[in-house]
Amino acid sequence: MGDAELRQWFQAVDQDGSNAIDAAELQKALALGNLHFSLAVCAHMIRFFKADTSRKGKLSKQEISGCLQQQGYTLDTPAFEAMFRAYNPERNGVMDLTCFIAMMIFLQSANATFQAFSQGQNRISLDYNQFIYACGNVV
Ligand SMILES: [Ca+2]
């Protein structure tokens, strides 16, 4: 996801044009990606980013990894690194709230697609057409 895409996406999420994402805006954005968090959890996520004033509201790779583990995601290092790189266009090892939300929506979408094929197993086998279909369903 490039800078221009992220900016466009941020503007869509920032419904009142305040140049900041509040808890209600975050909740709506996540719901579009089929991620349903309570307003309290959304407010907590925003505080989590805002509290980090030393890096202007950006979280390090380790902090993001810890956050995903808290949410119950168990990614190995290569998978986490590849995903983090994809949502860290500046390649600076820290992530802002916009990139984090986009990454969470991708992760949820990837999980839903995986589960559609895996039928409860932790491994899937796809032929070429199924692979293309699966990729096409991951946002
Ligand atoms: Ca706003």
From TrEMBL:
<dbReference type="InterPro" id="IPR011992">
    <property type="entry name" value="EF-hand-dom_pair"/>
</dbReference>
<dbReference type="GO" id="GO:0005509">
    <property type="term" value="F:calcium ion binding"/>
</dbReference>
<dbReference type="InterPro" id="IPR018247">
    <property type="entry name" value="EF_Hand_1_Ca_BS"/>
</dbReference>
<keyword id="KW-0479">Metal-binding</keyword>
<protein>
    <recommendedName>
        <fullName>EF-hand domain-containing protein</fullName>
    </recommendedName>
</protein>
<dbReference type="InterPro" id="IPR002048">
    <property type="entry name" value="EF_hand_dom"/>
</dbReference>
<feature type="domain" description="EF-hand">
    <location>
        <begin position="1"/>
        <end position="36"/>
    </location>
</feature>
<dbReference type="GO" id="GO:0005737">
    <property type="term" value="C:cytoplasm"/>
</dbReference>
<keyword id="KW-0106">Calcium</keyword>
<keyword id="KW-0677">Repeat</keyword>
<dbReference type="GO" id="GO:0048306">
    <property type="term" value="F:calcium-dependent protein binding"/>
</dbReference>
<dbReference type="InterPro" id="IPR051426">
    <property type="entry name" value="Peflin/Sorcin_CaBP"/>
</dbReference>
<keyword id="KW-0963">Cytoplasm</keyword>
<dbReference type="Pfam" id="PF13202">
    <property type="entry name" value="EF-hand_5"/>
</dbReference>
